[in-house]
Amino acid sequence: MAAVDIVYLKEGNLRRLADLIREQEIQNMYYMNFSSVAEQVQYLTMCNNNAASVRTLLDECLALAAKYKRSNDAVRGRISDQTLVYAEHCLNNALQLFRNFTLRRDYLDKMLDHFTQIFQAVQDLDTGSSPEVSDLSETIQEYDQMIVSYIRLNVNTHASQEYSQFLANSGVEFRDLVRTHKAKLGFTGRFEDLEEDEKLAVYTSVLEESGRLRALDGSKAAAEAFSISYWHGGRKKKFKFGSAAMFLMDMGQIVWDVYSSGEPLTTALREALVFAAEAGGAALGKLVATAAATHLLGAKASATFVAAAGIVGGIVGAFIAGAVAGLLFGLIFNSGGEAPLPTDGFVLYVVPMPNGRDLAPLLN
């Protein structure tokens, strides 16, 4: 099967997509029976801030390019143009593939921090130093290529279909899958104690074994290049500008799809979870118990599986939304599925979310 891709929108249409998604998300809040006006305002603010973050990042990229164009700074001007293209790819990824707006908030926070550090590096650049200029330009180009690779890996689920089916049939737990690949790379100790670069390498090992890397232009060479990008001469590669935190969220989504897509979740499960959370939301523990009652068995009847499935991929179009979505995601994927999840003390909702990937072609 040929590889598929998304529609890549440029700056102006990204703003329109962010606003369109925001409007639909606010409409979908009709399904969230909030316990108070203050809680409703919290979620409305999150939706508004998501769209505002898109505009802010694009505005800052354009302002940076205009600044160096006015000052006839050709070196910084070229890198600023490069940075805008990279930001556009990152935002296409955020808007089209992070459907859960409560998780997208956390991703955008990491993205804004990443770009703030890039902007500072451009400002501090010694334009008279060819090695320094080349290093910054090549780093941004490499990260841009990685984001485009993440997008392709995210949408080409067919590339690892057989492996996903094998995992589903074997009943292996997510944490055991991660442990196997951690050991394969020679890492010891707890996954959560690994450096972010090492965690990315472990998740890349899962993708290699699954066959998902074939989605990169269908080329073995491209797949190998993606894998090698984490390692140089057998030495761990250090990611710059806070990029690893953002990339870990991308990789978490992809690895979870590889792990979980072998056995699609049912409409019956979706309806049961929606019902469980419709009266003012529900704690994670209640959602896990509800899932078990729908005959979700084995590794799937766990807090880790229910939380990751609902927050990351959704359950037949419905997502587990909550102010703690980013926290739960981090606990799962920064620990390789080892960390116990809090099952009480916070409220989650199960609601439909707009699909930015379906909306993007309407604006192109």
TrEMBL record:
Q: Where are the transmembrane segments?
A: 305-333
Transmembrane as UniProt keyword: yes
Keywords (alphabetical) are:
Membrane, Transmembrane, Transmembrane helix
**What's the domain of life for this entry?**
Eukaryota
| Tagged with keyword Transmembrane helix | yes
- Name of this chain's protein: LXG domain-containing protein
UniProt source species: Cuscuta epithymum
Q: What is the lineage of its organism?
A: Eukaryota, Viridiplantae, Streptophyta, Embryophyta, Tracheophyta
